[in-house]
Structure prediction request, 91 residues.
Amino acid sequence: MTRQAREQFVAALAMLLTLAIGGALVGGLSGGLLVPIAAVLVMAYAKSRIVVLDFMDLRASRSVLRPALLAWPAILLLVALARTVAVTLIG
Prediction:
């Protein structure tokens, strides 16, 4: 592993840990409100994007797998957001 690759790995890992801790704090303090829950879902998508692009080494790839791996967490998070909105509106 070259020095540049190691630095990129450490930066991606630091960003993942920051997003995980931030998501846990926001989620814990949200009180069931819609906006903090949406913020946690955005942070979750950012984490999944980092994992797919950096840890699966697909950042420079042009394969069909890359958009598919970026789309499935987005779809799952949209379903989670739709459920949250429905629960908020229905009560």
Notes: The helical segments are 3-29, 34-55, 65-90. The CA atoms of residues 15 and 75 lie 23 Å apart. DSSP finds three helices and no strands in the chain. Residues 3-29 form the longest helix (27 residues).
